[in-house]
Automatic annotation (TrEMBL), chain A:
PROSITE patterns: ABC_TRANSPORTER_1 (PS00211), ABC_TRANSPORTER_2 (PS50893). This is Xylose ABC transporter ATP-binding protein. It comes from the Bacteria. The keyword Magnesium does not apply. Pfam families: ABC_tran. Keywords: ATP-binding, Cell membrane, Membrane, Nucleotide-binding, Repeat, Sugar transport, Translocase, Transport. It comes from Micromonospora qiuiae. Residues 6-244, 263-508 form the ABC transporter domain. GO terms for molecular function: ATP binding.
Automatic annotation (TrEMBL), chain B:
PANTHER family: ABC TRANSPORTER PERMEASE PROTEIN YPHD-RELATED-RELATED, XYLOSE TRANSPORT SYSTEM PERMEASE PROTEIN XYLH. Keywords: Cell inner membrane, Cell membrane, Membrane, Sugar transport, Transmembrane, Transmembrane helix, Transport. Pfam families: BPD_transp_2 (PF02653). This is Xylose transport system permease protein XylH. Its main location: membrane. It is a multi-pass membrane protein. InterPro entries: ABC_transp_permease. Signal peptide: none annotated. The keyword Hydrolase does not apply. Part of the binding-protein-dependent transport system for D-xylose. Probably responsible for the translocation of the substrate across the membrane. The chain crosses the membrane at residues 41-58, 70-89, 96-114, 120-137, 142-160, 199-221, 233-252, 258-277, 307-326, 346-376. It is found in: Cell membrane.
Length: 512, 416
């Protein structure tokens, strides 16, 4: 294959119980832009963490060849010493330090006395900023810059480390169109200067326009390596590689009998809480009793933000649009009002937002519906125990007693506690955000069975999931979300992963 | 599960009523009981050890009737503050201002009663009103403006100390009329006679024990009715007997000194009310939820701002109670009153098992923590230990207690 700057051979990385990477190989030619794509959870980020030494040598199997020579990285500093720099999706800048201080953080420009030479620091920073096309004073605090400019500071920081191989993880996910275009141009310029780039991206249009070659990962394995230079590889071709598998058959059967409309939103628009951009842009959707509706979207598409803004405006600002429950417009201005209107939302991050990990099952189950157990503010605690016991039995929560601390339960059992908590509020519609994330297969099946039981009882369910097979296996209809807009709604009978992926990757539609 | 399962052993017979069953069912696996209550029981053990240690070091002087009465009178206001403080800490906050608020409420009361000659109860009401206002002030900034309680109450500490100086015109006011002085220095004594001891104190002690036993038994019956695990009847009886003996011995000692201190009645009522408030009310539960995981509480519909506001209003109220007790006991108001009280109250809560990160802690724990501090200070005073060394010992005890808590948490985390 000629001159490869990097070869990763037969990399296998396992976490307890899960093989994140199996025999993955990656070859990157010198001076090219190499894209890595795959669904969420395909192993892209894990592979990059192996490469950059976040997972040190010895914690994985396989070998890494840099410039043809085997290397063992023990940490990030080690890989940076070899000219490999990774820029993560969540930027790692210190907000209240200046641009120059951030660029040289941990790599300070010092004078002969050992003190920092500020003149050289700022002068060198200015030079680096010019090379990435950022016209800002190096002493400006980073917090004053937008995300796009912060991204450029990260790249300048990478250049200061004499980078040979630059890895960008979802570089444009948080950027607007203009900043994205600017960043892609910068990547082309870096390529001309001989810097090799690896780019992880969900945005297939960007990949087809900029990448020289693409490696597709699926379920922790390399599927194929595509040469993009001839321009014959289309987005559809990449999608086929990403999803090409059969729908797993472990979704329990359900007879679908949708009834009356339960929840409907119209023209729902949400602004980012701190930045000046729309996170949800004019979204409309509805769900009926006895129906499971899915929301598919790539990372950063605004799925969680949409759900949380509907759930008592718990995310975002300047929320506009109309919310109807059972055909009547309601104003759910707080979480308590949303719960009162029969909406429940189980968060995607149950540890951070869903559970009080240091408290017991009983308190967690009752926490959202505590008033139902209380008279004049006094909690009937034996009744509370009974309710929690009933949940433990119905949901098959594996714990010695309802007084067990939730933090000690497995992920699947924690998720069942979350579901119990919301079912106790007796909602009409349940919004389940990544209901099976981080849960083993057996518990997943149990969760699916519970969802089907709820729907059979006439509840409406909205599932947000990154796993398309899950949506295809569970839902009656699937909405696709891209950059905060609903780009389509597909009945499950007509839906394929390819079709959904196409809608999910669809950019803002041109003005009609 | 049905309640009519055919049982082979002596577990639960189907026809039996819960009260009857309460006399013999239950398990007493001591290992499980101790492990489940390590955090709580550890603190009780520590208290017993410290009490025994000082009884030994002072030749039993620390357990004499007169000294026990003294401990109650001397530390009751710290314990009152610790009740409010543990709730603040469970909610994930801190209150550094309580010492200043004690001074301010006492000063206002003194001005109303001593300088303006109003009856004693007007002074009490004025102090409570000021305490509530201070609490609302703190609550407003913490809950609605979103400023960390550390800053708000640090500002409050300076602010209300300054206001105290203003109110008192920089001078001490004393003495209070006898009625006011009785609140903290008074005793209920000789109401029903007794020869060389106060029978009334013993009667109140007996009523307290009887009330405790009845309520524990009712809880036990209810738990059995709801098919919850309970301890064995023998263990239950042993526990009741132990608590009863301690309370009656305590009452006996008080009866042989000056009788039942009025502050003890106030304190007991507060412990009872706030013990129930934290465990059994929606408000109390929401405080734990907020401290345990703020985001999860918010997304469960808890009105976080409202709850935080009332946490501080409550702290202000209890600071006023402590201020009244302190001014009554010192029979006047001084500009420097209540200095460092906040630190004793915070220490009591943490020694009593409250977690620095919030979400964990109990009123009873804070009381035991406060008693540990009280017994230690009192014991060292009896022994004539130098003030400087007392401070060193108290500091080390606080550090060790919290280190134990952190260690405990890590151990729990590791066993996941």
């Amino acid at each position: 294959m000629g001159d490869n700057i990097l070869e990763m051979r037969r990399i296998t990385k396992t976490f307890p119980g899960v093989a994140a990477l199996q025999d993955v190989s990656l070859a990157v030619a010198r001076g090219e832009i190499h894209a890595i794509c795959g669904e969420n959870g395909a192993g892209k980020s894990t592979l990059m963490k192996v490469l950059s030494g976040v997972y040190p040598a010895g914690s994985y199997e396989g070998e890494i060849l840099l410039d043809g020579k085997p290397v063992d990285f023990r940490g990030i500093r080690d890989s940076e010493g070899h000219g490999i720099v990774i820029i993560h999706q969540e930027l790692a800048l210190v907000p209240y330090l200046s641009i120059a201080e951030n660029i040289f953080l941990g790599n300070e420009r010092r004078g002969r006395s050992g003190l920092i030479d500020w003149n050289r620091t700022n002068a060198d920073a200015a030079e680096l900023l010019a090379s990435v096309g950022l016209h800002e004073n190096p002493v400006t605090p980073v917090v004053q810059l937008g995300v796009g400019k912060q991204q450029l500071v990260e790249i300048a920081k990478a250049l200061s480390k004499r980078v040979k191989l630059l890895i960008l993880d979802e570089p444009t996910a948080a950027l607007n169109d203009l900043d994205s275009a600017h960043l892609l141009n910068l990547m082309r310029r870096l390529r001309e200067q001989g810097i090799t780039c690896i780019m992880i991206s969900h945005k297939l249009n960007e990949i087809t326009s900029i990448a020289d070659s693409t490696t597709v990962l699926r379920d922790g394995r390399t599927v194929e390596r595509l040469d993009m230079r001839a321009g014959e590889v289309t987005q559809d071709r990449i999608i086929r590689g990403m999803v090409g598998r059969d729908l797993d058959s472990f979704y329990p059967d359900r007879v679908s009998t949708p009834g009356e409309e339960v929840l409907r939103i119209e023209d729902w628009t949400v602004r980012h809480p701190t930045q000046d951009r729309l996170v949800v842009d004019g979204a409309s959707l509805d769900v009926r009793a006895g129906e499971v509706v899915g929301i598919a979207g790539l990372m950063g598409a605004g799925r969680t933000e949409l759900a949380m803004s509907v759930f008592g405006r718990s995310y975002g600002r300047d929320i506009t649009g109309r919310l109807y429950m059972h055909g009547r417009e309601v104003k759910a201005r707080s979480v308590a009002e949303a719960i009162g209107n029969g909406i429940a939302y189980a968060t995607e991050d149950r540890k951070r937002f869903g559970l009080n990990l240091i408290d017991n099952i009983r308190s967690n189950v009752s926490s959202a519906g505590l008033r139902k157990l209380a008279r004049f503010g006094w909690v009937h605690d034996n009744e509370e125990t009974r309710v929690a016991e009933a949940s433990r039995r119905d949901m098959n929560i594996k714990a010695p007693s309802v007084m067990s601390v939730v933090g000690k339960l497995s992920g699947g059992n924690q998720q069942k506690v979350v579901l119990s908590k919301w079912l106790f509020t007796d909602p009409d519609v349940l919004i389940l955000d990544e209901p099976t994330r981080g849960i083993d297969v057996g518990a997943k099946f149990e969760i699916y069975t519970i969802i089907n039981r709820l729907v059979a009882d006439g509840k409406a369910v909205i599932i947000i999931s990154s796993e398309l097979p899950e949506l295809l296996g569970m839902c009656d209809r699937i909405y696709t979300l891209s950059a905060g807009r609903i780009t389509g709604v597909v009945p499950v009978g007509e839906a394929t992963q390819e079709k959904l992926m196409e809608l999910m990757a669809k950019d803002k539609e041109p003005a009609r | 599960m049905t309640s009519t399962k055919p049982s082979s052993g002596a577990q639960t017979k189907p026809a039996e009523s819960a009260p009857a069953a309460a006399l013999h069912v239950g398990t007493s696996d001591p290992r499980a009981l101790i492990l489940n209550n390590l955090r709580q029981s550890g603190i009780f053990v520590a208290l017993v050890v410290i009490v025994a240690l000082f009884a030994f070091l002072t030749d039993g002087l620390s357990l004499s009737p007169g000294n026990i009465t003294n401990i109650v009178l001397q530390y009751s206001y710290i314990l009152v503050l610790a009740i409010g403080m543990v709730i603040v800490i469970i909610g994930g906050h801190i209150d550094l201002s309580v010492g200043s608020v004690v001074a301010l409420t006492g000063a206002v009361s003194a001005v109303v009663v001593i300088r303006q000659g109003q009856p004693w109860w007007v002074g009490v009401l004025a102090a409570v009103a000021v305490g509530l206002a201070v609490g609302a002030w703190h609550g407003f900034w913490v809950a609605y403006v979103g400023i960390p309680a550390f800053i708000v109450t640090l500002a409050g500490m300076l602010l209300f100390r300054g206001l105290t100086l203003r109110v008192l015109d920089n001078i001490s006011l004393s003495p209070f009329p006898a009625e006011y002085n009785k609140i903290a220095a008074g005793f209920l004594n000789g109401l029903i006679g007794g020869d060389g001891y106060d029978a009334f104190t013993l009667l109140i002690g007996a009523i307290a024990v009887a009330g405790y036993v009845v309520s524990c038994f009712r809880t036990r019956v209810a738990r059995i009715r709801y098919q919850q695990p309970v301890e064995s009847f023998a263990l239950f009886v042993a526990r009741m007997a132990l608590v009863g003996a301690v309370v009656m011995w305590f009452a006996w000692q008080l009866a042989h000194a000056r009788g039942l201190p009025i502050v003890l009645i106030i304190l007991a009522a507060l412990v009872l009310v706030y013990g129930l408030l934290t465990r059994r009310t929606v408000f109390g539960r929401q405080v734990y939820a907020i401290g345990g995981n703020l985001s999860a509480a918010m997304l469960s519909g808890v009105k976080v701002k409202t709850v935080n506001f009332w946490i501080f209003v409550n702290m202000g109220f209890l600071s006023a109670i402590a201020g009244i007790i302190f001014s009554s006991r010192s029979n006047g108001a001084q500009p420097a009153a209540g200095n460092m009280f906040e630190l004793d109250a915070i220490a009591a809560a943490f020694i009593g098992g409250a977690a620095v990160t919030g979400g964990v802690g109990t009123v009873v724990g804070a009381m035991v923590g406060g008693l540990i501090m009280a017994v230690m200070s009192n014991g060292m005073q009896l022994m004539g230990v130098d003030q400087s060394l007392q401070s060193v010992v108290k500091g080390l005890v606080l550090l060790v207690a919290v280190a134990f808590d952190v260690y405990n948490k890590r151990r729990l985390g590791a066993s996941r």
